[in-house]
Each structure stands twice: as C-alpha cells, then as structure tokens.
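quick one, 400 residues, struct below
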Amino acid sequence: MLNKDLLQAQNKDLMQKLSQALKEDDSDKMAEYLQQFSEGVQDCILQEYADLRGTNDTAILAQRGIRQLTSEEKEFYEKWAEAGKSDNPKQALTDIAKAIPQTIIDTVINDMQEAHPLLNEVDFINCQGAIKMIINADNIDLATWSTLTSAITTELAGQIKTMDMTLAKLSAFIPVAKDMLQLGPVWLDNYVRIILSEASAGGLEKGILKGTGKDQPIGMCKDLDGSVTSGVYTDKSKVKLNTLDATEYCAVVAPLAKKPNGGYRTVPEVVLIVNPVDYISKVIPASTVRDSSGNYKNNVFPYPTKAIQSSAMEEGEAILGLPKKYFMGIGAGASGKIEYSDEYQFLEDNRVYLTKMYAMGIPKDNNAFVYLDISKLKALDLKVQVTNTEDNPVNTKQKA
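---
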C-alpha cells in the first residue's frame, strides 16, 4: 500500500501535469515534472525516516507504506545501495547479476491498481519474464459434445491468440538522492515502488486507452478489423451519446453482448471512461437524480455502469466497454536488472537509475469496447413538483 501522505494535493497536481506531458509526448516536460515529484517524495521519506527510525511497530510502518521484505528483496536492495555508493556505480551495478525480484513487480502492480481504478479493472498480470503469452480471445468454450471436426478446431484456433510481450518497452527512470541509499532496504523499497508505480501508471493508461499498436499497446479505442499502416491501428468510428436516457444509453450498451464471431454473452456491468473535466461537467449532471427526500444521488445509470476518470482521454470523448476484455501484461525486461543511467540527471546530488520493463496490451475482441462522442451529452432534466391540498397542506410530491 502506498503512503497516502506522499500523494497529497501538490503531488497529485504534478502527476496530472506529468500525464498531460505524456499525452503530448513532451519529454522535456516529463523530465521536469518527474524531477519535482521525485524530490517531493524523497523529502517526505527522509522526514518520515527521521520520525520513525526507532519504531519497530509493523502496523505503524505499514500505514506509512513500509512493508516487510522477503530475504530475496532485502538482498536485492542491499546490493543496489552498495553499488550506488561506489565511485563507479555503473560498473558496480553491471557486476550484480541479480534481477529485480518478481515480488517487487507484483507489489508495484498492486500499488498501481490501488491508485488507478482503470488498471484495477482490466485483465492485468505480471508476465514474470514470459516472452509470449497465450490469451483466450473471447472466453470460448473449449469443450464440445460432438466430434472435434476440422471446422471446429479451425474456429477455436482462431480465437486463441499468441501475444509477443517484447513488442513494447516501458522505460522508467528512478532518481535516487545519495541520502536515500543510506536509509536501508525497506525505505528504499518504499521510494522505488512509489516512483515506479506513478511513473509507469500514466504510460500504461495511455497505452490501454489510446495506444496505437506501434511499439506500444493497442488501445481500447482502436479498430482491430480496420486498416493498419506501419503498425498503427485506426480508431473506431465514434458513436454519439447525447443523453443517458434509458433507451439511448442501452442502445449503445447492447452491441457489447454480441460476440465478434457470432453468438452472445452476458454483460453484467460496463465501464464508462471519461476525461475528469467531462466527468464533472457532463457525466455527473447527466446521471444525477433527486430522491423523495430531495437529496441528490450521483452516478445513476439506466444500466449497471462504473464511471472511471482518466486524463488520457480528451474532452468530448469516452470509451464504454467490458474491462476484463482487455489484456495487459507487464514484466521486467530481458535482464530484469537495475541499470545506472547517464541519460538524465534530475538532481545535483543524485544517482539516476533505469529499469527496462515490457508491457503489451490488446482488446481480446473487437466488440468489447465502443468509442463515444459525448461532446453534446445533456444534463438530466430534473423536475420537482410540489402540491398542497386542503386536507393535507404539507403533502408534497417530487418527480424526477
């Protein structure tokens, strides 16, 4: 669990700026905001270390994001800190054959999912070094009552996809002030997990929602059956959604119940992913009702829906779909090692490290997501009628 105090308003503002820079592919701004964010996190951890250095209460430490490490994790951080303190950290790290323990990657994934609702909804797994992943494209039934004819086997084979997990790489820079290397493994772990999860989550969200497919995931908004130019997938055509009236909204949801190659599936719930501004200015007004007591109730949809905000979405657009129909795999790179980086120097008294991860994602089928135009989404027309009668002058009725 991340230390909530480290993600206060000022840091959230920085992460929003970082997300915007990521959306615009502005590497200079990304470096600037990551520097500010990492400096703030390091200052908080150094202060907490000073306050809690004599505390052995695991419950208190856990509340601050300090977790108990496995022996493998402890050894990894000890060797990293030792190499980082040397006069030649690049060579010292090269001499360490130990890769990042998979348990650290698992914890980073959990941290990202806790802080970013979208990542908690998709089929998101740690590939643990796998080069290729086999996914069931449409939850097909592999059992049959009849003879397994060549036609059936061909149909089944077409729905089982093999994904090359090395197609897209996710590089994360970790600036570590020299003072951080003195704190010990558990505190270094807390810092590394925060930086890795926050720095990676924005890139993952962008890839999941809008990824082009060229050296990055294939986004939910992409047409798997459309044209592909130099590895870039085209967007789906946007469907206009002007109201959350039951008839109009359910008409948009209904196609999700159709499997891409025939047949039907149940749709117990959908997600609606929108820009934070649109969520406040459009979705809330369109999905808010008043009960008989006059109290407002938000996020009331005519079909079971979970609304998710993401800065990777532009204003005026949304994605509606089945989140578990999106597969995202992430894992350490080929070596899984932490490397010393000369590419960026964010701080004066620092060491900058680099970890190369790979992450690849794709919708499991082309009918799982709808790309929406919500630029004209109207607010719900609330009407309140109050009637008084001579027999009961305080009797009131409200209609929404």
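The two ends are 41 Å apart (CA to CA).
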